[in-house]
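okkk here we go again. third time trying to get the zinc ion bound version out, last two times i messed up the smiles copy paste (missing a bracket lol). double checked this time i swear
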Amino acid sequence: MPYCPNCKSEYQEGILVCADCGVDLVTELQAEAHLKSSDLELIYTCSDQIEAEMIRANLESIDLDVTILTQKDQNFPAVGDFAIIKLFVPAEQAEAAKNYITNLPSVPEENESEGE
Ligand SMILES: [Zn+2]
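finally!!
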């Protein structure tokens, strides 16, 4: 069953785009095939190629082994320029990568100060 990578809704076969999000649907088979090819863990998702490349460059600068997957690389016809881009690293590097991304100034996170 295809499903939306954004809201996780499942759709019937033959439907290619999420009615709610406008995102290309993916199949679990594709997601699992990629994940099983090596022991990768998803650490970041965005729809902006430039942002993805920037984060990859940052992570590679601290010696992490980053893999980028986009739906444009798969067999779906792209709808406009919109694509979900996923960044993976080996599972043992995932925690370091997530910590690094959290601390990047250009990625807004909850910035509430604690303990004041
Ligand atoms: Zn959706």
